[in-house]
Structure formats: C-alpha cells, structure tokens
Write a structure and sequence with these properties.
The complex is a heterodimer. By secondary structure, chain A is α/β, with parallel strands linked by helices. Chain A contains 11 helices and 16 strands. Helix content of chain A is 32%, strand content 28%. In chain A, the strands form 4 sheets. Chain A has a 6-stranded mixed beta sheet with strand order 8-9-10-5-11-12, with helices on both faces. A 4-stranded antiparallel beta sheet of chain A has the order 4-3-6-7, with helices on one face. In chain A, strands 14-15-13-16 form a 4-stranded antiparallel beta sheet. Chain B is globular, with a radius of gyration of 20 Å. Chain B is mainly alpha-helical. The chains are: A alpha/beta, B mainly alpha. The A-B interface holds A 67, 70-74, 93-94, 96-97, 99, 101, 103-109, 111-112, 116, 120-121, 123-126, 164, 168 and B 1, 5-6, 9-10, 12-13, 16-17, 20-21, 86-89, 91-98, 269-271.
C-alpha cells in the first residue's frame, strides 16, 4: 500500500494526507452553527488498518466532525468519500453499514439485559445477528450479558457500546472518547481489541483527551484547534517537525572537567542549569543538536555519569500547539 | 434486511422495555379496578331512569377512558424519541443502516401494543362480568377499539412533541398541559362560552370546536356507535352528533397529522 504524506503550514488550515486506498476521505469540510464556525475546510483521510487519533480541547469540533462523517449532520461545504463513493448529502444503507460508532456517552436501555440490547441492535444492522456472542466475548461481557443494563458500571456500558460498534463487521470504527470510565486494565484490554481489529484491516478514528494513552497506539494524529486541523501526521514526525527540545540530565563523572563541558555545551545547548541539591546538570537541547551533544558527552571519558534523556512527547506537543506553535 | 423486520424489532423492544416498567402494569390493574367498580355500580343504577345496565356502564366507562387513556398515551410516549436522544441512542440508531423514519414508526407500533395490552387487561374483567350477565360482546369490542384509538391519537401527539422538543423535563410538563387542555379545560371553556352567552351560540360553531379536541370527538363517536337512541335522548344529543364518517375522518386526521409532522422532523434532524 503506497501512501504519501504532505505536511503543510497550519495557517493554511490543515494538513493533507493523500492516500491511494482510503476507507474515508474528507475534503474541505466546513460546518457552522449560528454564531460560530465549528469546522473550517477540514481535509482528512483514513486507510484500512490505520488508527487516527483526533485530539483537541473541548468545543473544538471533534464530535461535530464525527457526526458529519456518520451522516448525522450535513456539512455546509466540502465532500465526503466513503470507500470510493461520494457520500456528502445522503448515505446509502451499504455506506451506513460500513461504520461502527461508539458515542461519547450512551446509557442504552436500563430495562434490557446486555444480551437483549445487542440482540436488538444487531437486528437493526445487516448481517450482525450472528456476531452477538462473538462481540460479547471480544469485550468480555459474556457473564454480565444476562443482567439488566441498569446494573452495569460505566466501564461495562462502554464495553457494551464497543460491542455494538463491532456488530456487522464495520470497515471504519468511529470512537468518541471511548476509554472514558474504563479502569486501567479495561483500557489495556480495549487497546488490545483495537490492535486486533487493526490487524484485520479495520480503520479507526478515535477522539480522546488522554494523550499518554494515544501516543504509543495511534498511527497518526489530527489536532483540531479553532475549527482547523492544525497538525496531522505520525506522532514522531510531528514532534520532529515541531522541533521541541529534549531535556538532558546528568551528574559529574569521575573525570569531570568544567572547561571541557562548557566547550561542548556552547555548541549545542540552548539552556543550562545546575541543581546543587542533587548535583545534577539539566540541559535543554534542540533535536538538531541532540545526537551530536550526546555523542560528545558520552565519548568524553569519565566526564559525566547517570545520563537521562527526556524527549518531548505528545502532551508537550499538544500544549505547544495549543499555545500557538506552528509546524512547517 | 426487510423494513418489517426492523419495524417489528423496534416495536418489540419498546414493548418489552415498557412491560418491565412496573407502572404500566399498575395502570392496567388500576384501570381494571375502576372499570369493575363502574360495572357493578352500573348494575346497581338501573331501571329508574329507563337506561339499561349495559348502556349506563358503557357511558361511565367512556368517561373513564376520556380521563385515563389520553393521560396513559401521553405518559407512555412523551419521551419516546427524547428519551433516545438523552440516552445517546438516537444518534447511535441514526447512524445504523436503516431509514430513521422506521424508528418513529417502530416506536409508534410498540407504544400501540403497550397501550392496547393495558386496555385489554383493564377492560377484560368488566367485559367478562357484563357478558356473563347476558349482555352482548359487540359494545365492549367497540369500546376497546375506540379506547385504543383515542390512546393512539395521544401517542401520536406525544411522539410529535417528543421529536420537536427533545427535552424530557419540558415534555412531561407539555404532556400534562395537553391532558389538562383537552380533557379538563376544553369542556370548561365550552361550558363557559354557553353560560356567558346564555346559550346563544350557533350549534355549527360548537360542532367546529368539537373537531379541535380529539377527546370530544371520541366521546361523540363512542356515543354514536355504542349508545341506543334512548340513551342519546337522555343525554340531550338527539340530532346533535355529527355524521359517523366525519368523526372517523377527524380522529384519523388527529392520528396521522402529528405522526407526519414527527416524521418530517425526524428526517430533518441534522440538516
């Protein structure tokens, strides 16, 4: 599968990912509600087996974008292509059947059992009836399925929500804040399920605030801010493009020499501090200098010890982008 | 997947969901107790004014239906769509591969089944007592059909508001308001009009006003279909009841128009 990625300037509203095989492709999608433009010319593509994380602060349009993709809201402008067919205004039953959707909060029907709920929902999805037992097993609700939903915890309702999203073999899963209410082991199991689905070629678009959770698991990230996708690409590429500094810490080695250290730091370091209490140097270093700096520090025999490198993560990137950082 | 499969799945879920909601059974039993009391009272209230036992019982039951069934229909249905919206399942179901209008019709069908079951439970005991006492089943069948029908009218009205408002807190107030308007205030308004004008109101105007209230139409239709001429005379309605066909058309319109408005609105969601 070939894929070309172009990262454009954030001021030009979005980063475009063009793909030869896309299950979903959005082009110049805009949506305004009275008095507020929520989405402005959004471009986004998702390929089979890809997990794209949609991140952004509250009120930035994540749920609106998901609803437009699902056909629950009509965009004011732009084009939606699902599996190669235009689906901007009206959805065919087949196009609808290619989605699985987990809303942010779903209470379901308190008087029905988990099994009855899935049997009911599966009867409304083409070819889904045979998968009820299977999806219950996938989300680990086999034992709880016989109890009424009103007895379920929030995490169990989320699992039930994921189970219904999996009914009918969807090609694209749209998950709105899916791990809300899940405990740590539930979150782990949840991502294991998503990992398996990705291997089966299911594309996943997931909105979340939990950056530490998304960072190691997403293939690409789209940051929504002020109605535009201000950054889009793999986490690594975005961090590299953002040129966020790394933090490097170390202590004096057995052959420490101030002059040698100063000479090295002058060439590579933007900021330097010495913490007397812990006898630790703390350096701030741009990614373009990091490799050379580490090489020189480590090859200077006995100059330093206990080296720790803290590279910037998604959370740092998110904060910087929210503070107006532009990625070129 | 056929349209009917989806329709009946939604209706079946609605029926089970409400059946497990205890107060529906309680309402059915309460209706049965009231109906039985009226039936026995009707038997005790015979002869002296020339009205037959069955006629007096049925007339009392028609009035009981006017008070209870619209309220039952409204309370059953006011959160039909708004409840789905607040639970988060409306958007979910709208994303499913079927036409959203089927959700509305499926709800309607399911609520009809709940209401019909409740009324069957409520009317079976008094009907059995009456039929056991030698009266015909025909009038009781008509009472059941017309009672379910007036319930359906109020289900349609409640569903229409449920789609339009999508807020359960407002809708419960609206449901009570509609019941008060049609069941209590409307009659008081007509009486007030007649008293204030000392009866100098054209009968045509009063008839037109009746068409604005489905419970008034139901009362007239039930009397027309179930009461004999003696009873109609006792009620002072000889020559005053509009043609049966006009009443049926008007009640049908009260059923269809709100459902059409609800259908238009639910299809327009998100546009």
């Amino acid at each position: 599968m070939s894929r070309t990625q172009t990262i454009t300037n954030a001021e030009n509203s979005s980063l475009l990912v063009e793909s030869t095989i896309s299950i979903l492709s959005l082009s110049k999608i805009s949506k305004a509600f009275p008095g507020k433009a929520v989405l402005k010319s959004i471009d986004l593509s998702i390929e089979p087996g890809q997990l794209v994380a949609l991140v952004g602060n509250n009120g930035q349009g994540k749920t609106t974008l998901m609803k437009i993709i699902l056909g629950l809201l009509e965009p004011d402008e732009g084009e939606i292509i699902i599996d190669g067919e235009i689906a901007t205004a009206n959805r065919t039953i087949t196009q609808k059947a290619s989605f699985g959707y987990l809303p942010e909060t779903t209470a379901f029907y308190p008087n029905l059992t988990g099994l009855e709920t899935l049997n009911y929902l599966s009867s409304l999805k083409q070819g889904a009836q045979s998968r009820v037992v299977e999806v219950l097993s996938i989300v680990g609700l086999e034992q709880a399925a016989k109890y009424r939903v009103k007895t379920y915890s929030k995490g169990m309702k989320q699992r039930l929500g994921l189970a219904q999203a999996l009914l009918g073999n969807p090609k694209l899963l749209l998950l709105d804040e899916p791990t809300n209410g899940l405990d740590p082991s539930g979150i782990h199991e949840f991502y294991q399920i998503l990992g398996q689905l990705k291997k089966e070629g299911v594309a996943i678009l997931m909105s979340s605030h939990l950056l530490a959770e998304i960072e190691p698991r997403s293939d690409a990230l789209a940051l929504l801010k002020d109605g535009i996708i201000s950054a889009h690409g793999t986490v690594d590429k975005l961090i590299t493009s953002a040129e966020l500094p790394s933090i490097i810490k170390f202590k004096k080695g057995p052959h420490f020499n101030t002059d040698i250290l100063e000479k090295i730091l002058q060439q590579h370091v933007t900021e330097k501090r010495y913490l007397e209490q812990t006898e630790t140097f703390v350096l701030t270093c741009l990614p373009t200098h990091k490799q050379a700096l580490l090489l020189e520090l480590l090859t200077a025999d006995g100059l330093i010890t206990e080296l720790i490198v803290n590279d910037p993560g998604l959370e740092e990137l998110f904060l910087q982008l929210n503070n107006g950082l532009k990625i070129t | 997947m056929s349209t009917f499969t989806i329709l009946f799945s939604i209706a079946r879920k609605e029926f089970i969901d409400h059946l497990r909601n205890g107060w529906i059974i309680a309402v059915g039993l309460a209706f049965a107790i009231f109906s039985l009391l009226i039936t026995f009272a009707g038997f005790g209230f015979t002869g002296t004014v020339g009205i037959g036992q069955e006629q007096s019982t049925l007339f009392s039951l028609i009035n009981l239906v006017i008070y209870l069934v619209p309220l039952l229909g409204l309370l059953l249905s006011y959160d039909g769509i708004a409840g789905e919206y607040e639970r988060g399942t409306l958007d979910l179901l709208r994303s499913y591969p079927f036409k959203t209008i089927l959700l509305l019709y499926g709800k309607w069908l399911g609520l009809f089944m709940v209401l019909a079951s409740t009324l069957i439970v409520g009317l079976t005991a008094p009907a059995a007592v009456s039929i056991y006492s030698g009266h015909t089943i025909q009038a009781w069948t008509l009472l059941l059909i017309t009672s379910v029908w007036i319930g359906i009218v109020f289900i349609s009205i409640a569903i229409m508001f449920s789609v339009l408002i999508l807020d359960r807190a407002k809708l419960i107030a609206i449901a009570i308001g509609i019941w008060l308007l049609f069941v209590v205030l409307f009659d008081l308004g007509i009486i007030g009009l007649l008293v204030s004008t000392e009866g100098d109101v054209p009968m045509d105007l009063v008839n037109i006003l009746f068409y604005l209230n489905p419970t008034a139409l139901y009362r007239l239709l039930s009397i027309d279909l179930m009461m004999d001429s003696t009873m109609i005379q006792q009620l002072g309605l000889t020559g005053q009841i509009p043609p049966t066909s006009a009443l049926i058309v008007a009640i049908t319109a009260w059923t269809i128009v709100p459902t059409m408005i609800a259908g238009w609105r639910i299809k327009a969601l998100g546009k």
